[in-house]
Amino acid sequence: xxxxxxxxxxxxxxxxxxxxxxxxxxxxxxxxxLLIPAIAFWDLLNMPQGTYWIYQFLGYELILGRVxxxxxxxxxxxxIMSFLGMVYAIHIKEDGQHVAAFLYMGSxxxxxxxxxxxxxxxxxxxxxxxxxFLVWYRREQAALDAGFRYVFVHLTGGAILLAGIVMHVVExxxxxxxxxxxxxxxxxxxxxxxxxxxxxxxxHAWLAxxxxxxxxxxxxxxxxxxxxxxxxxxxRGFAGTExxxxxxxxxxxxxxxxxVLENDIRRLLAYHIISQVGYMVCGxxxxxxxxxxxxxxxxxxxxxxxxxxxxxxxxxxxxxxxxKMTELQGRNLYRMxxxxxxxxxxxxxxxxxxxxxxxxxxxxxxxAAAGMLNRPAIELMLHLASIGTFLHTGxxxxxxxxxxxxxxxxxxxxxxxxxxxxxxxxxxTAFLCILTGVYPQVLYNILPxxxxxxxxxxxxxxxxxxxxxxTAAAFxxxxxxxxxxxxxxxxxxxxxxxxxxxxxxxxxKPLNALRSGVQAFLTxxxxxxxxLAKNPYRAGRLIASYFRGDPKDKYQAVRNEPYNVNTYxxxxxxxxxxxxxxxxxxxLIYFAVGG
Length: 595
Known about the structure:
The chain is an all-alpha fold. The chain has helices at about 5-15, 25-45, 70-90, 95-115, 115-135, 140-170, 185-195, 205-210, 220-235, 240-260, 265-285, 290-320, 325-330, 335, 340-350, 360-370, 375-400, 420-440, 440-445, 460-475, 495-510, 510-535, 540-550, 550-560, 565-570, 570-595, and strands at about 50-55, 60-65. β1 and β2 (about 60-65) form a beta hairpin. It is elongated.
């Protein structure tokens, strides 16, 4: 028996306690919001490796605690991120946002530590249901629409995942979640569900659609959990799958290419989430110990620097109310927000794999794993993606947001640094980005396999610096052509947007017309039956009047004729005669049967 609890339940129980604390003791509530991640981290530190919290359900085992080094590295970073994100969001007074965030965090940890497919599916769906409220709480029409599309996509993916799980259980008789072979229909359905949450093209458009529409603080949480939990389940269930190598490499380039077209600062960063997750998916597909370590390390580092990037851009949106480079450039925001831009650049250097920042360590591991497995094409694609990342996230976005050349037509923006808690969260996150970059042994100690890799060799550092410097030079030469453009880029979400519009049109026009016709027909019949019920005896007269071709006024007079007891009363003799005949026939039948 162990004296710890599943980390997921710490957050889930905490979520339901938040509304009970009220708003009078605000400091107490804020302390509680930070205490929950601290308790969860202590829980992880005291959680020995093994399998715990096993329950029987309908003859199958439900496992809430499968603890090994792979689950622990993701568990650590998710809990760390929950603390940093809550520091960033601590000023939010709306309980609903905090409840949604805690349910989101808890369900993600449930996915990480589950040992069976059924429990994984339950937490998987809670993740989707909780996270959508971080979009809807922005309370703008664009956010509401994006949230509905987000739910539609994830429920569809969840249904396919469940179908795969059911088929797998029927085929194998087990719900255990372990390495799966992608050679059956069941495993392919499960793989599809995982790839959708990982935002692998062409299943990715929900991310670039929904993440930019979330609340300033909610989007920070969303960058950390959904896609990286998908990377975890891919590493757990499909490590070494050849398809993932190419999907990941294409994904890394795809996100970079679309980032070129973006003007919205958070949408640009959302596309770079897709690109960076591509490195992880590729590492999982490569499947070697170094590749799995690289994918896990990159997930760890990415959560930190991507959260920092969203924190920085979120701070700009928070204080200016603007989110497009064409609305921000040339206004010298760097003078009004020097701390914010400095901390943002730590994240920008990290994602761009600048030496001494954590992205350099984790990206180099994945690329080196591809080289050791003799995959030069994959190496080249990942290097190209890295160049594009620095070009847009490290150069284009900060230039267009905080700097930029003034045109003389800009309206004045009143801006200042965001609230202290937001700066503290950014500062802590930036510190961790630098710490794990300067001293990667901290990260190596928690990776799934023993690490024998040294990123800071002369060839690796020189090669990376050459690419970065050449990219910076190209940006400076073509700076006038790389600014933001007030355009909207179309992506694969066009298909389900058009499908949704088609369904809406069908429901509004043909289906509604059919409903109206059926309703009118039935309403007319009901009125006729009701009218007839008032005077059933006139039915014969109505039929006779119709076939005689009586004038309309005469027909309507018969139709509207009320029941009159003196007119329609049946003589008592007729009733007595009918009753006598009936009894006589009944007597004959009785004696005939008896005889």
